[in-house]
Amino acid sequence: MYCVRSTDCVQLMVCCYCFSDCGNENVLCVKYSYDGTVVAAGLVHGAIKIFQAHDGSALYHLTDQEVRDAHLPCTSLTFIPTDHGQKFEHLLMATYANGVLKFWHPSTGSCLHTIHENRQTLAASFSPHGDVFVTGGAPAQLHMYDAATKKMVRTFEPSPDKTVMDGHMLRVFSVLYHPNAVAYPGVFLSGGWDDTIQFWDSRVKHSVRKIFGPHICGEGLDIDPEHNHVLTGSWRKDSALQVWDFTSTEKIKDIPPDFNSCLVYCCQWLGRSCITAGGSDHNMARIVDRGTLQTTGRLVDLPGGVYCSDNSRHGNVPKVAIGAANMVYIVEKTGG
């Protein structure tokens, strides 16, 4: 482990944990546990590493014969909501590029259940209560499963009417439930290559609303439940980071680019006052002040594109885990 400091407006302590035992396996997805104590990293050949969040020490290595034989990327990670994960602390769901979903018990290294989808599975999201989850990928249908039985209960897709775009036409890279399950029960969003964000109601087969514009190529979608704002990150040079009103689907603002351009793969709301975003071009991750829209901390010229990030969701300014090449960076505000 080593530490560096940014030279930007807000002083950051950046601790970098190198997966020295993983060779050249790049990190494609990262996820904090709900209690913020561990970080999971999904690798390009399918293995998953679990680390202590506070010091980066390795805890568990998750793989099995099916994952080793496929030798394909782990595409997303989701810790199961605590109401349904109390029996197995930090129960984890992973998706893979060959359409496999696996439910892992990290501390024993056991795969508790496997689901096979006949496609590339690229994203997944649990409902806030953890009773169902939705997967997306290519082809672009969204599949809903019962979390208890692991059985598919519904498929969401566009209608046959070619004059109406009420679903995705190209692969889906991001799926996200609205975190306010009381006000928006069964409501989730999805985005991908067809330059739309689709709004779904779990009772309806086709999407109920949409936003035109964002070109989502990773986990470039997040919802702020307090202000009901949608954050999108697009893999393009212009209008890469945008904020939208959830209710009206109208664009609120474009967030200005940094000194160095960035094609955005991933973005999130960070506490109540900041935004995180990361991507390629200059292989950069940055933190943006939500009020001034100015960059307050950044990592530039990382060893690879920033395909993924996640925050701990604890404290006023949570810690952020960033994946680039075969490294995970933990970013923490320490002054300012």
What keywords describe this structure?
336 residues; mainly beta; five-stranded antiparallel sheet; four-stranded antiparallel sheet; 1 helix; 49% strand; disordered N terminus
Concise structural overview:
The protein contains one helix and 29 strands. Helices cover 2% and strands 49% of the residues. With 336 residues, the protein is mainly beta.
Could you explain the architecture of this structure?
With 336 residues, this protein is mainly beta. 2% of the residues lie in helices and 49% in strands. It contains 1 helix and 29 strands. It has one helix at residues 65-70, and strands at residues 2-5, 12-18, 27-32, 38-43, 48-52, 58-62, 74-79, 92-96, 100-105, 110-116, 120-126, 132-138, 142-146, 152-156, 172-177, 187-192, 196-201, 209-212, 221-224, 229-233, 241-245, 251-254, 262-270, 274-281, 285-289, 295-299, 306-311, 320-324, 327-333. The strands form 7 sheets. Strands 1-2-29-28-27 form a 5-stranded antiparallel β-sheet, with no helix packed on it. A 4-stranded antiparallel β-sheet has the order 3-4-5-6, with no helix packed on it. It has a 4-stranded antiparallel β-sheet with strand order 7-8-9-10, with no helix packed on it. The radius of gyration is 19 Å and the shape is globular. Mean pLDDT is 90; it is low at 1-21.
